[in-house]
Design brief:
The complex is a heterodimer of chains A (about 300) and B (about 240). By secondary structure, chain A is an alpha/beta fold. Chain A is built from 11 helices and 13 strands. In chain A, the strands form 3 sheets. Chain A has a 6-stranded mixed β-sheet with strand order 5-6-7-3-8-9, sandwiched between helices. With about 240 residues, chain B is mainly α. Chain B has one domain (about 5-240). Chain B is built from 10 helices and no strands. Chain B has helices at about 5-15, 20-40, 50-55, 60-75, 80-90, 90-125, 135-165, 165-185, 195-200, 215-240. Chain B is elongated and about 60 Å long. The model of chain B has no long low-confidence stretch (mean pLDDT about 90). Classes of the chains: A alpha/beta (about 300), B mainly alpha (about 240). The interface of A and B includes residues 74, 79 and 101 of A.
Chain lengths: ~300, ~240
């Protein structure tokens, strides 16, 4: 199995550190969400992994080998960096055939990935006529061309319509299930939460988190319980007796911080408090992300600059 | 990585961008048209050179050769195209060599066909005034002209890789060829003889005087081209994509 190994990777652009001593290992068989604000170093890291930029220090390897030494790299690693990269005057099919030829990938694969990305019917149209969503699909088609074990996509959901978003989610899940290494950068939290198993979070080029997504959320966002009753007074006093602090909301429902439905349900039932609604409120990735980034002072400072 | 697949891929790139075969077509059309015009001109000028007059369509026509070389390279510097190309072919030196090869061969072949056509229409216009031309001179003119056009296309390709822009390359080279070389070029026996275009154009002349001959002149152009390609290759290899 092939993973992406990044070791002490540093990249400076004219004295500014875009990537700062980053060490991370992206494992196969799961989708790793790559998070961070604009300018955090996500795209730079991907370029360094692909050998497009030269690191100031450190190394990045694919299955232990630097990208530039791979014999036919598209057969090992597929990447989408910029959906605008395809020349507008070429047809989508020719664009893929050009890439395929350099790595001795048969033209048949171009037709297959066009089919897979839903572009088969427009394959012979010039890329210039494509919408952003279609270009994004073409970029993904190019990434899948060599049937690679490692797939790296930079903001793949950009410009996709709702149908496309669902499609990419399923695609990413499937690629991971097939045992591939999937690294997907995004700044859309809800979107990332829908497909990622694991998270790598960057801020100002530094690693802020490298954890499974569930752990990331649970460690940072306290679970809450949402409850509605016809007898607010009884509810509040009962919960208070058990050491729970309940807050009332203007629309009449209550939330109990740091609590689980199992406990609250039993307490309410035992006290005979009539319950109309009882639900767990899971923390969201967005909440966890802002909790993390809010804790990083440098990170916030950078936000204010921008 | 093997070289042949890279070469195939680069050749496919040239073929699938309409503007590139278009530039070669323009090279042929412009050169023969201007040679045809020159052929019906006055042949009584004391400095009249029937070979150069017949092939003089190359002077404006070479702009198409330069555009071909510049555009073939500059299409890689649009958006993230270069990143995509170098992700597919990370051996940058090999990639640039393939790029140069797929510029050189079509430019040479089109150049040879163009030169032959230009000579024929030029001679047809000149009539008996061109009868002094020997077969050897005409062969030298046609072959030299093809090589010259290839060298100019490659020169532009090298400059475009260095400047990373087709617009910058053309706005540097076209005025240079049309204005600088044209204005100071008449002063033979100066350093102007060693300019990349002036030196190579000696091969298009029946008679010549000065330090350089037809082949040594072409060699000077080849040196310029080699320098531009090396600078371009250095830039491609060394800079972040």
């Amino acid at each position: 199995m092939t993973s992406i190994e990044v070791q002490d990777l540093t990249k400076e652009f004219g004295g500014r550190r875009a990537v700062d001593r980053l060490t991370v290992r992206v494992q196969p068989g799961r989708v790793t969400g790559f998070l961070g604000p604009n300018g955090a170093g996500k795209s730079t890291t991907m370029r360094l992994v692909l050998g497009l930029d030269r690191p100031t220090a450190g190394s990045a390897t694919i299955g232990g080998r630097p990208y530039a030494t791979l014999h036919e790299p598209l057969r090992h690693v597929g990447a989408l960096l910029d959906a605008q990269a395809a020349h507008g005057s070429r047809t989508a099919r020719d664009h893929l055939r050009v890439l395929a030829a350099s790595n001795r990938i048969p033209d048949r694969r171009a037709d297959e990935v066009l089919e897979e990305t839903g572009l088969a019917s427009v394959a012979r149209r010039r890329v210039r006529t494509y919408s952003l969503g279609m270009r994004q699909r073409l970029g993904i088609a190019a990434a899948l061309l060599g049937d690679p074990e490692v797939v790296m996509l930079d903001e793949p959901s950009n410009g996709l319509d709702p149908e496309g978003i669902v499609w990419i989610r399923r695609l990413l899940r499937r690629l991971a299930q097939e045992g591939r290494t999937v690294l997907v950068s995004s700044h859309l939290m809800n979107e990332t939460a829908s497909f990622a198993d694991h998270l790598v979070v960057l801020g100002r080029g530094r690693l802020l988190a490298d954890t499974p997504m569930r752990d990331f959320i649970h460690a940072r966002v306290q679970p809450r319980v949402r409850i509605r009753t016809t007898d607010p007074g009884a509810l509040e006093s009962t919960l208070a007796r058990h050491g729970h602090d309940a807050q009332e909301h203007p629309d009449g429902h209550w939330t109990v911080q740091d609590a689980r439905v199992d406990d609250i349900g039993r307490i309410a039932s035992a006290a005979g408090v009539p319950v109309l609604e009882l639900a767990a409120e899971e923390g969201t990735l967005e909440q966890a992300y802002f909790d993390l980034t809010g804790a990083e002072t440098e990170f916030t400072a950078q936000h204010q600059e921008a | 990585m093997e070289f042949t697949p890279v070469l195939r891929s680069e050749w496919l790139k040239i073929r699938t961008l309409r503007s590139l075969p278009g530039a070669l077509l323009a090279l042929f059309a412009a050169t023969t048209a201007f040679s045809a015009l020159a052929g019906v001109s006055d042949a009584s000028d004391p400095g009249f050179d029937p070979l150069f007059t017949s092939l003089s369509g190359v002077l404006p026509g070479q702009i198409a050769a330069i555009s071909f070389g510049a555009m073939a390279v500059s299409s890689e510097f649009h958006q993230g195209a270069l990143r995509l190309s170098l992700a597919a072919v990370p051996r940058r030196g090999r990639w640039f060599a393939a790029k140069a090869a797929v510029i050189a061969v079509p430019a040479l072949l089109t150049g040879l066909v163009t030169a032959l056509a230009a000579l024929l229409v030029g001679r047809a216009g000149l009539g008996p005034a061109a009868d002094t031309l020997s077969t050897g001179e005409q062969t030298r003119g046609v072959v030299g002209c093809g090589v010259y056009l290839m060298l100019m296309a490659l020169f532009a390709a090298g400059v475009a890789a260095l400047l990373r822009s087709g617009v910058a390359t053309l706005s540097l080279l076209v005025p240079f060829i049309l204005v600088v070389s044209f204005v100071i070029g008449d002063a033979t026996g100066t350093v102007a003889d060693f300019l990349p275009d002036k030196a190579g154009q000696l091969v298009l002349r029946e008679t010549y005087d000065g330090t350089l001959g037809p082949w040594s002149g072409l060699a000077v152009t080849a040196l310029w081209t080699a320098a531009a390609l090396l600078a371009g290759a250095w830039s491609v290899r060394r800079r972040d994509a």
